[in-house]
Amino acid sequence: MCTALSLNTRYHYFGRTLDIDRSYGEEVCILPRSFPIIFSEAGELKRHSAIIGMASVANGTPLFYDAVNEHGLAMAGLNFPENAVYFSSEGKKTGVASYELIAWVLCHCKTTEEAKKHLSDVVVTNARAHAELPPTPLHWMVSDERESIVVEQTADGLGIYENAVGVLTNAPAFPSQLENLYRYKALSNAKDGAVGLPGDSSSSSRFVRAAFGRRYSICEGDEISSVGQFFHLMSSVEVANGLCKADGEDWHKTVYTSCISTSQGRYYYTTYGNRRISCVDMHKTDLDSQKLTRFPISNEQSVRYIN
Amino acid sequence: MCTALSLNTRYHYFGRTLDIDRSYGEEVCILPRSFPIIFSEAGELKRHSAIIGMASVANGTPLFYDAVNEHGLAMAGLNFPENAVYFSSEGKKTGVASYELIAWVLCHCKTTEEAKKHLSDVVVTNARAHAELPPTPLHWMVSDERESIVVEQTADGLGIYENAVGVLTNAPAFPSQLENLYRYKALSNAKDGAVGLPGDSSSSSRFVRAAFGRRYSICEGDEISSVGQFFHLMSSVEVANGLCKADGEDWHKTVYTSCISTSQGRYYYTTYGNRRISCVDMHKTDLDSQKLTRFPISNEQSVRYIN
Amino acid sequence: MCTALSLNTRYHYFGRTLDIDRSYGEEVCILPRSFPIIFSEAGELKRHSAIIGMASVANGTPLFYDAVNEHGLAMAGLNFPENAVYFSSEGKKTGVASYELIAWVLCHCKTTEEAKKHLSDVVVTNARAHAELPPTPLHWMVSDERESIVVEQTADGLGIYENAVGVLTNAPAFPSQLENLYRYKALSNAKDGAVGLPGDSSSSSRFVRAAFGRRYSICEGDEISSVGQFFHLMSSVEVANGLCKADGEDWHKTVYTSCISTSQGRYYYTTYGNRRISCVDMHKTDLDSQKLTRFPISNEQSVRYIN
Amino acid sequence: MCTALSLNTRYHYFGRTLDIDRSYGEEVCILPRSFPIIFSEAGELKRHSAIIGMASVANGTPLFYDAVNEHGLAMAGLNFPENAVYFSSEGKKTGVASYELIAWVLCHCKTTEEAKKHLSDVVVTNARAHAELPPTPLHWMVSDERESIVVEQTADGLGIYENAVGVLTNAPAFPSQLENLYRYKALSNAKDGAVGLPGDSSSSSRFVRAAFGRRYSICEGDEISSVGQFFHLMSSVEVANGLCKADGEDWHKTVYTSCISTSQGRYYYTTYGNRRISCVDMHKTDLDSQKLTRFPISNEQSVRYIN
Fold first, then answer.
1. Is residue D305 in some structural domain?
2. CA-CA 20 to 30 A from C268: which of A284, B161, C172, C274?
3. For residue D28, what is the domain's CATH number?
């Protein structure tokens, strides 16, 4: 369970919640232009766009959950169980493994428009980052300041959809989510005008709630107000511990929430344990280096004790 | 619009959102035992329990929105439009003005049990704090670690209700809210078990959502985890700017959210502009002084810049 | 479980569903002007308005569920569990037993306006029709072509409420139902404008659904079209067998639905077993007689076999 | 707007509502085995299964809305706007026009199993019954006593789906409807267990409501009880006049509701104007004739006047 959101105020902001029953050692990573990346089929890439994002690092390589490159193109992968299907490339198309698709797109493309072109020739494969990591069923939202798209590969093949509502959650497939959202088009921000808005944590309900919030959101256009508003909108789709059972014995909860200022290369985030916003700025590191910079995320509540 | 919540983990926590279209210069105030209070009908009280809470200060006296006393008794006043009716005391009962009811209860009572007794002889009057401050229509939740009650004065007189669900929002009256809540009793935290939970910002819907969250909440029992969980639960009832029109040209939004650790006398809060939790501890001031201590609240986002 | 509805087209129509887990031998009864009625406290009434309605007949006297008198004043009693409280009259007020309140009002009053006056001096008592018939907890809707009222006696005493929405179901009390209904005021008959309308069989949901239907209903003004439309509106609140469990081993279902043409004295009804509309006309009997006329209702499906 | 339902009690019943803003002269038609049918591409069929169903008759040929053949295979076409796409057959597949698909399937197949095989080679074309009749965007439910399928042709081609829930309404596509339905799986027939069931007339909401009703329906197994229960279930998805605006100046309403006893060849129906059930029995005509038998439907309320 996850929710992604793309929001334009004066600038463009992009982020997501990660709703899951455990943490996988996520870190904010800055991948500079000369960090060598070896793709599963496409081979080594020695020079590319710089990227900042949340990732698990496996064998020294970041597997991104959500990220932005230095050109302001952002992308997030969200759980898509019982729908995502990965194929073999069979040599005809460009095979990109699910775990490396974000890096692949952000290394090669500067805009959503470019991403659409590059992705049209891609097949998402089920190659593994390493032996013990079976691929997770995912779909993706790609956004720049102009537009968003959704990328889903199902049994029918790879689909690329325009996403005018700027939201993505989980299953069902994006076209179904839009159809369902459309039913709520009579809701408004008038007094009692939103009665009928669903309040549960299912994927469909979070989709409708996030799209409703994005549609009526009002805030000052400066970065701090925009980032604050972004986290307010995400509050309505975050999952509190205990309220939503996972398949096993545990509960889904919102492990972290991110908000990327795509034009500034700043990665803001909060965690379940720490409401305070943290910020990592990609431009405060040397983007021409060859070395990954890693910032482990803190889950400790940072309270401001006034007296 | 507001939502109040009473939550027991290892200790007891009590707090509220204030959802309104403007701020009234709220401050966290510590009112020590010898700060003289002049009640509108009951006259001056020279010695009483110490109190910490959020208040507007008028003529040097705090008008509390929500507060706790040193014995762990907490109380909050919430908007109750078109329902609250204030009367003249006519000398038969103890007349307490709506603006001073929180101070009056917290000065005199140590437990909810005591509050019930004291309130049974009270009539809430429409006296004004000063000439330009017409009384606001309010009702109240009073909680200690054992139980919660709701206090409402309507055209039918003063009602005192047991509140086993530990939640209060706005109109309609509390018995009606309970009846409505009862309809949702089949909802659960199973997968898709909460489908049907209302997601809008109306008073009834926030009541149901807060009660659902409180019922299924799970967290560690230590203070920091409990406070963190309290704010997570409140996230689902907070109001983001733009999503809910007020009567005039403006929008309701959650100006602040509080969480009081009632046994420790610590007042935690966040504001619309600053997600980071601030904390004021009543026991870090001299509770035997005569002087009000005031801590203006900050609305500036406190971001932790990591690099 | 039951739903009552008052509808004005060119004339006035009034009716109800009876949703229950068994039948009690209901019959359409015409009570003529000189049929002697012995009220539990008020004694014998030898001459009064003629009445037609659905009733159980106990010891030769009809106990009405819903009925109209020859002046067009209609009234129905609906289940009101956990809310209705019956008192002793203690000689100060006019004591009328719950089972005889419909007959008492329709014998004495010609309009809703008159009913309000008569009822203002009444206390509803828990006298029994006979020993084995403990009183059922009820509340009532009274309507003429101009207005509707609701009559509820709770622990707070007898309440008489204006009912501008022309609907009554069961608990909670009528003021609470109105408050809940008010939340749905943004719904409309536009495409997707009714998304958010509740679809279950709870008392609150049937109230909202019936009020929504009544608000947007359109039909020709002649009697047959009006009666047909009345039954269409009632379809949305009828309860199909199996869909709603009663307290015991059985299911609630809509045993019968009535629609009274109040100005014409015609009683139309359908039953769970027979969708075809039956009609009994009070003016086709001698209304000056002393004898009750009884028309047992049929539950056998009257199919029109065309070939 | 329409809803189709397949229900098994002791026997199998199949039917639908037709929700539309006008009537098109529907008639119950019995098409005997030797009535010659000329298909748009497949040519003339001289001998085939006998069929009974609701149809518009154009140039002497019935265009079926819903029907059953003498083997108990039933089929209905429902509006599927903005989704249905009809193609040219281009000689590779069997081209069947949308208006003739019901007749084509019921003439050739005895079971749903057979229908699946026949349909796998079909392309639905946009040929017209005659010049002034542009094809309506439709999808279909096909049912026998063992199973139901849905047939939809979209831009992706012809899809044939198993339909275990026995319901079809309108857009979105059937897989999306199932996904949406699945969200409501925690609802039940316990007291208040259905809170969350949607009550509006949108296609998605009618789908959920009909599936809920079908799941919990209980009735005696004889034909009259089963047919009665079928119409009770349909009541919850019928559309009353005025409550749901069509695109133009008029309102959708349920023009007719059918219930076919598939094993007996009896076609039961009600109309908006006449609640009484009418019945046409195919076995009361000579099924070996060459002549179409037509029974115009009546919209006049058939009231049973008792006195």
1. no
2. C172
3. 3.60.60.10
